[in-house]
Amino acid sequence: MTHASGPMPLVHRRPQRDAGDAGFERGRRQAVHVAEALIVLHGAALIAGLLIGLG
Prior knowledge:
Helix content is 95%, strand content 0%.
């Protein structure tokens, strides 16, 4: 029983690690998109503020 269950965690660990790397990559890309969206929104808010201030 110990021999049968011994290699099993090794077999299960590899796909989990790959899935974890893929999830990390996906999360990192999503964070980049969120940061870009915040930068665009912040720029638009600054421009709107300048227009309102000048107007």
